[in-house]
């Protein structure tokens, strides 16, 4: 096999890994949240991922040190990505179906674009939106409304989503998760971390893991936890495939493929999540919600592609921000 053919194969495998592993994290989060308290899920997966990253760094001879002044910034980014975002996402998935949650959270690129616009208005840098970006933002908001309004209307009619009692709160929590992820991405972009990608990711996830552990201990999460093979398997899957393998594939793509192509994960992952929720959890969506899904995906695609001239860190933040 020629080197070009081998490289193409690796790229295809990397895309498949990012699409499947990150798209399937919503299913795994849903399963974990059904069996374990939210802080326990967040703490367990973060600490296990951190342990694996430390082992890899030691095995490959990477120093775990980061440049002076970057430690607290990496920790803050980790708290936004893997504490605020992760715990809110896990909590939200206890109130709405996993595919539904993925579609709400996939609005993150739109949140990032809006935060950047606000930064421009405040004179703090930022990237303005062009016409395509604004069109995508408006479509994304419209799609989100089409997606969630039927469920909210049904809740007020005392019907709700079958099996879920509070979809309105679930949607608000998931929007909070998307905002936390977007804020972390914008913050990371401005920090321009110099640390090794894997090491920086370890610092981020490790800091979040310690915080999540404190929350779990203070709220009595571990005392209330009833460990089952389903919950434990979901956490192991999230740690190994969602965080570690997905990150390695994502990093490889950033180094070998145009960033606009890599960014397609933002609107492919929700489709994977919806399909897995349908096939494995028997989740159903009304036709109007499927229409909302299509509108959101198109809107996010327009926003991502409108920012195609930015560099890798400009669109996707830094090393570990995209870990679901």
Could you write a compact summary of the structure shown?
This protein is mainly α and 324 residues long. The chain has helices spanning 3-35, 38-60, 71-92, 98-105, 108-121, 131-156, 167-191, 197-218, 221-224, 229-256, 259-262, 265-280, 287-306, 312-316. Helix 1 packs across helix 4 and helix 6 (131-156) runs antiparallel to helix 13 (287-306).
Keywords, please?
single chain; 324 residues; mainly alpha; 14 helices; globular
Count of separate structural domains: 1
**Total DSSP E strands:** 0
* Basic shape: globular
- Major beta sheet, specifics? none
Helix- and strand-based class? Answer: mainly alpha
Number of helices: 14
Radius of gyration (CA) equals 19 Å
Strand content: under 5%
What is the chain-wise order of helices and strands? Answer: HHHHHHHHHHHHHH
Mean pLDDT: 84
| Model regions low in confidence, pLDDT < 50 over at least 5 residues | 310-322
Specify the helix fraction band: over 70%
End-to-end C-alpha gap:
34 Å
